[in-house]
């Protein structure tokens, strides 16, 4: 980020913090804050012989791998 050059990216940067009162903190998305957010959306995976039993790249939904 080049703070000396005004432009489109600086507008996006400043606009991102305007929505929270300019405090400089942006809350992470739900799927990054909670372990069960991805499984609640219907995504799940399991491990069999050290390999994924489902293709993790088949959907745009983030998936979390739980190893027991």
TrEMBL record:
GO terms for molecular function: phosphatidylinositol-4,5-bisphosphate phospholipase C activity. Residues 1-33 form the PI-PLC Y-box domain. It comes from the Eukaryota. GO terms for biological process: intracellular signal transduction; lipid metabolic process. Pfam families: PI-PLC-Y. PROSITE patterns: PIPLC_Y_DOMAIN. This is PI-PLC Y-box domain-containing protein. It comes from Rotaria magnacalcarata.
